[in-house]
Amino acid sequence: MAHLVFDQAEQRELREAARAEFPGNAALAYVLENLASEGIDLNRCRDWDDIRAEKGMPERNGKASEVA
């Protein structure tokens, strides 16, 4: 895999978008701003099904009603 990084202009745009889109949720804006500055290590990403199993959630059955 790879490490996804953003150049300075992209970082600035992502930070501004995070602040504009989530003014009432400082924690979410912080996470998005952090991703903009730190990038994303794709080697550390986990599959959704693995996370579900880890949390003891049932397997997906493909119904749209399960989508949040």
Automatic annotation (TrEMBL):
Name of the featured protein: Uncharacterized protein
